[in-house]
Fold this sequence. Notes:
The protein is α/β, with parallel strands linked by helices. It has 11 helices and 20 strands.
Amino acid sequence: MKSAASSLLGSKILLNFNHSTLPRSSSIFYAKSIPHAHAHAHPRPPSFLRTYSSRTSAPIMAASFNPEQARNPPALPLPTPPLTKFKIGLCQLSVTADKERNIAHARTAIQEAAERGAKLVVLPEIWNSPYSNDSFPVYAEDIDAGGDASPSTAMLAETSRLLNITIVGGSIPERSGDRLYNTCCVFCSDGKLKAKHRKIHLFDIDIPGKITFMESKTLTAGETPTIVDTDVGRIGIGICYDIRFQELAMIYAARGAHLLCYPGAFNMTTGPLHWELLQRARATDNQASCFLNYKKNSNDNKNNLRHLTATLPNLFQWQLYVATCSPARDDKGSYVAWGHSTLIGPFGEVLATTEHSEDIIVAEIDYSLMDLRRENLPLSKQRRGDLYQLVDVQRLNSQ
C-alpha cells in the first residue's frame, strides 16, 4: 500500500519555457523573443540581459526573475525529518541463479548492516535474479499477492519489522497480470509496505561493439514517480536508468525529498563514464525550494516587490543526499555490473563508496548539513521563473 504522499504525488512532468506572456500553442516549450537592437548607437538591452552592480538593485533583479514561478505548483515545504542524523547501509551483493540463496544472502547482509548501526538499508537492482531478459519472467513475483507468491518481499517485510529499520529493497522482477515490471519496494520499521516504485525509464541502449540491452523486450515501464515518508525522512525512489533523467529528481526535490535512492546496475561501458557523475549531479542540481505566502500582483509592481522582499527570508532550499546500490561484479555473468555503490553528500561530495566486489558500507547522513549548503548556494532565489518552469502536471491538476 502506498503512502498518502506517494499516492497523491504521482505525476507527469513538463518543462515550460517562459510561461507568462506568450499565447499557448500545442507545444509545451515556448520562450520570449529577444527584441532586436534599435538603429541608435547604444540600444538599451532587454531587461533580462541587464546587469546590476548596486546592492539596492538585487531585490529588483530577484523580482524580475520571478524565481517563485520556476516550480509550478510551488515546491512543497520540506518536512522536519524524524531523525537529523542516522546511518545508512548499502549492501552490494553477489547475485547467483539460485533464488533461495539470493534471498537468504540478502537477509544476512541486511542484518549485518543493522548490527553496524544502519537505520536505513538499501539493496541493489535485481538482487534476487540474474539480470537478463530470459531471467525476468522466471524469477518474477506477484508482490501484491505477497506471502508465498513473493518470497523476496516477504523476507524484506519480516526483516524490517524484526530489526526495526527502513529498507529500500533494491528491485526485483514483478509480475502483475500479464505484465512484468522492474520494481522497488520500501518497507518501514513496522514491516509494512510503504511504497512500490516501478522503473519509469526502461534501459534500452545500443552502443555498437560495447553493449546492447533492451529491457522493453520483457518489461513494462512504470507510470508514477514515487516519494515516500519514512522513519528516516522523505525519500524519492528511482531505479538505475531513472537517474539519467534529471526531471524526475527535480520533481522529487520540489516535493520535499531529503534523500534520493537509486538501486542500479550500471555496466562496464557506462559505469566508468557516468555512474559517479550522475549521482553527484543529482545531488547538486536539485535544490528544493518553498515560497511561502507569495501571490504575484502584476498590477502593482511596488507592492509585488515589497511582498517578495519580505518573503525571501522564508525560502527553504535544500540540496539532496543521493544513495546508490549496485550488485557486485561477476565477470562470468551475462551482464557484468560496474559496482561502486555510493553515498553522495549535499555538496556533491563522495561520502562513502565501494569497489566492485561484494561489500557492505555503513555511513552517516546528517540532514543539518543541508542548511549550510543552502547558505552556500541559494539557487532557489536565483532561478529564472521568467524564462523556464518545471510543471508537475498531476499536482497542478489536483489543486
